[in-house]
């Protein structure tokens, strides 16, 4: 079928391996009647049809022209009459046609059984049997007989159209033409160098053009420079099959001048390409418009009007929506935005206006106020654009936050245009080629790229440099995915010259770090902004009816401040009636709506996932196991990754090889840098304490994991349809399922329980093969599960809470594969000698009143143990520390129980800690014991100390703490400092965090040179402290001072304090009940 395109230029020309739509194969005796009528019916419908000539059948073989015609036809029609098999040329044609049909292109074949039965061909009977016998008897073509028979058998098996005395020829020919029209798709426009923007084409087709809807005629106006014509040509090819008829009128601005033939000629072309016969020349645009309305008013058409520059062109070619049938789509491109506005105002046309920039089509919104939250973004970026010392600015954020939209608003801002006379925009994207990026930039800067198509990358860079030389410019590099891109492109720019700037958008913080840019992390919209955006899209900025507002706000809240999701849901809501029942139904199925392909929310988020390494993909998907909005402990997550085998131990012998925990921290940090995971809380040293993922990223994890059974989340709605996944996460209270005899969980290797109550003691009987068992805060087991001793594969065990305190079973100490044991939800009465057999143990946390480490056999060392929490510091334990039984210990939490040891011995016992050379963090629960601390009792590596429930600490002990060379964080909770807290010069040289909670301290003196690195200070419920040291406020590093429940005197003194601009002073009070 001939393509609908009036374009003869480079953007949209015809170039295809096919020359014909249909190859017509027939025997000569049907030529003058049935076949001739069929041929002309096809031609009249503008179906390019090849009808052979007897002149082409010369000699013993098919002439080359016939072979070429078959090969270059998109389908074949076989008029199979009784005499068809008597011709060796017809049979050779048939063999060739069936070869093309069975090849990779699978070209359609339509058999017309003309007064014969399909079985005659299939079984070679009647006239077909006689013909094949005659060929065999002659003997000249015996080498072809099998291929002829095979082809006849194959075509006899195909469904076709039977023509006999009971069917009128005219009726049969109409059916044939209809079938051909369905079978032969339109020839696409030829695109010389595709832009590679399939996702953007998909967005425009589905979201903007609503291509699957036939409700109304829709006009779309796209304005901009650059490759807009080529973009729309590619869009035309993508959506053309959805329409019975279409036309692409290109270069309209040129073709409407005198030499181009004028508007009347374009009207004729439009009608002709739409399949309408134009018998006489159109003499005026008035007549042409009438013809378009009359002939196309009932048809669903696709019309592209490319490069319009005058309102008269639109008046003549697409004056109003009712010129065309329901479901039609009219796409207008122009470099003159005002033409679209004039068409809308003068003709009352409802036209959706969009801006094409950097390979993207974005909704047109001229005013900065149209972008929700733009003011706060603009104030930051504006400051960077005016700063002469900053050359590169980055806007960073997760997919769907609107980075490109914000960048476009900045790019089109009038002040920016005045500040940077030269501006250029190029989209980089995930699968980028430096050459394509540079060509797009040259196109945007110089409005032409044809002269540079054949240049190599380095030559293109030189062209860009030469053009920018001496100019003050702003270049936008939109959507950079990898830091290495900067290395590929930066030499094209004169970085730092004449106040010019490079503006980058990216999902990855590492890109900003690599470029050395000043970055702005785009935050999600807050509650007010989210509601504003929703109302703007649903109600065009008007107020939401009061009865719908609660449901609307609930829908918006589920979007988590992600503009992409809010706009998607607004699109769903806007199509519904404004009734509470309708909106309530949407609210209840919001996650279903957001994960549908039509919204493209998941597609945008999945781009981030697809760009991860394979090891990071499984680490990221694992986050979906946790409940929605759950703050995930970072160390716990890393320990789980290790137990699952996502992080493999480094090869032994490698110098300075990182520990698996350190590798896990890097993995998690990379996910944060890529804005796929967010930091929820930080530790006192600035490290990540807990993290979160956006609800929609969690939905993506669940969707991705279901296909390969990576994990399933068990809720009330799906508990009886689980598919034996590798990992199972219970978020419901249906506990009976777990112990059900019918439950098949043979493949489940990890079990997470975040909800439920009153489980039976055999609740885990179907999960004896698990390697990970995580019983969260809301999972309450009454009895201890009976089958722990059989869980021999267990690597990770966490029991965080039980409904009543229960004794930990001793059998868990015989699980030799354990790496992490966190059983603080049980009471541990003793640790048996089997503890020393757990050679793989890396992290142990227990809850106890008084429990000691067991005696050990000579030569036993726990080489892998890094965390030990909840044991007593007694004489046997101190001896273990001295003897080097825990050479890798980094985090230690000890109880100092005065009922087990005499108080005067604490100094001696604490001195054993100096043998723990890798100890980084120490917690001491002193049970109201007095402490006397010596700096020599602690290892030099110690960075964090927490002392809780202590009796008295004197000034010499505080002085000793101040001498620790690497101490970064000090927390004192519930105790007494008997002397004034006197910090001399060079005390606490590396301390960054200092907290005193419920500490009785009378005064605090800070000499100059003490605590020079202090960043955070918390003073909470210290009733005797009347003032903070004056020297404190001169510390340049101080960023946060929080005072909770100060004494009256302290509160008054803080009113007069002058705080520097970089420090936040907060005074707060706890609620009184």
TrEMBL record:
Pfam families: LRR_14 (PF23598), NB-ARC (PF00931), TIR (PF01582), WHD_DRP (PF23559). One of its GO terms (biological process) is defense response. It comes from the Eukaryota. Coiled coil: none annotated. SMART domains: TIR. Keywords: Plant defense, Repeat. GO terms for molecular function: ADP binding. Residues 18-184 form the TIR domain. This is ToMV resistance protein Tm-2(2)-like. It comes from Arachis duranensis (Wild peanut).
